[in-house]
Each structure stands twice: as C-alpha cells, then as structure tokens.
Design brief:
The protein has 2 domains: 10-205, Hypothetical protein af1432 (Orthogonal Bundle); 212-489, Orthogonal Bundle (Hypothetical protein af1432). Helices cover 65% and strands 0% of the residues. It is built from 24 helices and no strands. α11 (207-228) runs parallel beside α20, α12 runs antiparallel to α13 and α17 (320-346) packs antiparallel against α18 (352-361).
C-alpha cells in the first residue's frame, strides 16, 4: 500500500484511499456503466488470483485491486460516441483510446496516496515482447501487477464484450490467451491463470467485500455469544403491546378496553389513527379517535399495526452511516408483512393477520445485530455491504431468541428460522412458504437489502403454493402502493 505519514495510521490512509477510489469509480460509472462493471470484474479477478496463488503479498494484492478498479479511468477523456461505436474505429480514434493509460496515470497522480498503483495503470497494455503501449517496455520491466491486470483485462473483454456479437465462450477465450503467451502475456502466469478463470467462470467474488466480511465476522460472533450468555440483553416487548395482547386473549374483551390501553401511549394513538385513515384502510368517514379506528382495522389487525408502530422505534439510530440501512430494513419488514397478508388472503388461508405479524418479525434478528454492531464499531467507517453480509448470516439464531423472550409460539419461531431456507418442498409448512415468497417478492420490487434481478417464475414457492406468476407480480405492485401510502405513518 501507499507510504504512511507519521501522523496517520495505516487504517486512516486505507480509508482515504477507499474514499478516493469510490469517488473515481462513481465518476467512471457516470461516464460509462459498462466500463465500471468491467473494471470491477478485472479488479476482483486480479486480486483474488494473486491471493489464491500467492503471486504477491497481501498489501500488494490490495494495491492490484485498486489499480484494477481504476485501470481504465483515463477513458473518461474519450468521447462516449467513440466508445459506443460498433464499427471499426479510425486510426485517429484508436490513438485517442490508446492514450487512456497515460491519461489515467495523469488523473491519479493528483492523489499522493495512489502513487503505488500508477505504474500498473500506465502499463496494463504493455506486452512482454515489447509490442504493447504506451511505452513499449517488455518482460520483467512491466510491473507484475500490470501483467496480471493485463491478462484479466484481455479475457474479460472477450467474455463480456461491449457488443454481444464479439462475445467468446470460456474455452475460446482461454485459447486466445494461451496463443499469446510469451508475446502479449507473461507465460509464467498462464497455467495458474487458466485454472483460476476456469474455476470462477471468468467472474470471481468481490475481493474487498470478502476481506471486510471476514474481519467483521469475529465481531458478530462476539455479539451472538453475549446475547446467548445474557451479557447483552435484547429489548423487551413494548408494554402497550403486552397489555393489548392480554386484553385480546380475554373471552369477553371489548373495543373500549383495548382503546383505553392504546390511549395510554399518545404517540402510538396518533399513528394508529393516521394509519386507519390511510388509503389502505380508509372508509367513508374520517377516523378521529382510537375507539373509532378499532372497528375499521379489526382487533387482530389493530394489534399488528400497534406492534409495527412500536417496533419502528427499534430501527432508530443516531449513527449516520447506519441510518440508511436501518430504514431499508424497516421498509423491507413492513413490505414483507403486507405481502404475506395479501398472499395469505389470495390463498384463502385463515387468519391472514397472523401472516402480517410473521412478515413483520421475520428479520428482527438483523436489527438487534445491527444495533449491537453500531456500539461495537464506534466511529469506524465501514463497508455496509460487508455489514449486510454478516447480519444476513447471523440473524436467525438471534431473532429466534428474541421471539422466545417476547412470548411468541413455536410456529412463529419456526417461520423465522426457516424463511431463508434454500430448499423448499411440498412438505414445507405453508407459513414458511408464504413468508419466503413475500420476502423474495420484496427483493423483486426493490424493498430489500439484496439485488432483485431474478425471474419470479423461477421461485419454487410459486409452484408449491400453486400461484400464477402474474398474480404474484400484481401482489408486488399492490405492496409498492401500500408502502407508498403507509410506511411514513408508522
């Protein structure tokens, strides 16, 4: 990595490098999203390859990763119409494109912390026989990192070209590389390179996310141990919810009794009235008090809404870097809740309100982990993708622990524990299938922490529940409208 000033720690300098790299890759994305994805693949493949075969030290592998991300930054100086021209380029246009390593070096030279990667950026198009550009250097005079990046840059352009007609399959692409060993490419790297690309089908995992996820895992394990040993206490069920549950369980409970309990909490009362007046529940007349809201919502739905309002406070944080993630988790849980309820109604299942509550609580362990992690991490700047990966891995056991302490029965705990199962069958409980489908549907409509690029028809749950894909897509649209109408009211 870069040389460090005495007043700064390695971690400080690394964070500065990350900020610069993120800013520059955002610039690249604005100029040409295709090029950003290409650069990410080259960076991940190059660094993971170096790590897998111990080509360089760990610090040098990270430098190669950053150089891979920015190896084409000089192309921002090339007009877009040249980049996106499918025809054979003129000599003048080729000269402009071939200047990008020099332009990239010039851009990056403004950042002293990036000086280690400058030679790799400048020389990633050099050839070991001296026929490359911009300087025509050869053999070991070409920095090792540049030789590695040059390999992965070349094969990526064959496997993932800008123009589909130029795409090569993996076998042809590797053969093309092998034919250039000793000419364009370092022959000493080819055997391991071929093995690596074959194993990863040309696209390996996110290098930086992998490193940061591994470093965070120990922290999350410590948090889990503290929860299970009683050294870190999860929040208790809000008192107003406990009291409502007690009243509802009585055989002869009345709406007046439930209204009196809710009215003890003015904040929950006002929000309940707002939700009752929202387009989702709106009737002919305006609701002006809690007692009037109960008949419109129903007793069980009232309990669900109150629990949602009370749970919303769990998603509050004064840590700025976690606020967006907390908000996303809240919207995801609420969307899953309404989605589960609508799916249950569509399937004519009894007690659809139960499914709402299952959807609302299915990811509750993530919030507890995240809140605990905000305290452990202090003011450290974090890769939020790495945080997301860790809470995804660890949230089930902690969520189960909380539901037990809140008095939920085995049916709820079973749903929470298995809603993320990869293998589902006709024997899987209906409740799990419904929450699984609702959870996946939120990804499709982008109310999730995870990518929604998948085909609805591929979901086993749709087949098992005997639902039409079009019906599920319509439910997704319904959820989006509901969230737009009520999410801000809780």
């Amino acid at each position: 990595m870069a040389d460090f000033k005495n007043s700064q720690t390695n971690a400080d300098v690394r964070e500065l490098i990350l900020e610069v790299v993120r800013t520059l890759t955002a610039l690249l994305d604005e100029k040409d999203p295709f090029l950003k994805k290409h650069s990410e693949r080259v960076a991940n493949n190059s660094a993971n390859f170096c790590e897998a075969y111990q080509v360089v030290t760990a610090d040098e592998a990270e430098d190669i990763y950053f150089a891979g991300l920015l190896h084409d930054i000089g192309i921002v100086a090339v007009p877009v119409d040249i980049l996106k021209n499918p025809a054979e380029l003129s000599e003048a246009d080729m000269v402009r494109i071939k200047r990008h390593p020099i332009s990239g070096e010039k851009i990056l030279s403004n950042f002293s912390y990036l000086k280690n990667i400058l030679p790799m950026v400048r020389h990633h198009h050099e050839a070991v026989d001296g026929s490359g550009y911009p300087d025509g250097i050869e053999g070991d005079s070409i920095p090792l990192g540049a030789r590695v990046i040059g390999l992965f840059n070349y094969v990526d352009n064959l496997l993932y070209p800008r123009f589909e007609g130029k795409k090569r399959d993996l076998t042809d692409a590797l053969e093309a590389v092998a034919n250039q060993a000793g000419q364009l490419f370092d022959g000493k790297l080819i055997t391991n390179f071929t093995e690596f690309v074959t194993a990863n089908a040309g696209q390996s995992e996110d290098y930086l996310l992998k490193k940061e996820t591994a470093s965070m895992r120990e922290i999350f394990v410590t948090i889990l141990k503290k929860f299970t040993s009683g050294k870190l206490n999860p929040p208790v069920m809000p008192q107003v919810v406990r009291e409502i549950q007690t009243v509802i369980k009585r055989p002869k409970s009345t709406a007046e009794e439930i209204a009196r309990v809710i009215e003890k909490d003015p904040v929950i009362s006002l929000r309940l009235i707002s939700v009752a007046n929202s387009p989702v529940y709106r009737g002919v007349s305006e609701i002006k008090n809690v007692k009037s809201a109960l008949p419109r919502l129903g007793l069980k739905e009232t309990l669900n809404v109150v629990l949602a309002i009370a749970n919303k406070s769990l998603y509050a944080t004064d840590k700025v870097q976690f606020r967006i993630l907390m908000d996303k988790l809240w919207v995801h849980s609420l969307a899953t809740a309404y989605g589960a309820k609508i799916i249950a109604q569509n399937l004519n299942l009894e007690d659809s309100e139960k499914f709402f509550l299952m959807g609302l609580t299915h990811d509750i362990g993530k919030i507890l982990l995240l809140k605990a992690f905000t305290e452990v991490s202090k003011d450290k700047k974090l890769n939020m993708n790495a945080v997301t990966a860790n809470i995804q891995e660890a949230h089930l056991s902690l969520g189960s622990l909380l539901l037990k302490r809140w008095g939920f029965d085995k049916e709820f705990i079973n749903v929470l524990t298995h809603h993320d199962d990869k293998e589902l069958s006709d024997d899987t409980e209906t409740e799990i299938l419904v929450i699984h489908l609702a959870n996946m549907l939120t990804r499709k409509i982008e109310f999730s922490l995870f990518d929604g690029e998948f085909d609805i028809i591929e979901l086993d749950t749709i087949r098992i529940l005997k639902m039409e894909p079009k019906t599920v897509e319509d439910i997704g649209e319904n959820i989006k409208q509901i969230i737009a109408d009520v999410a801000h009211l809780f």
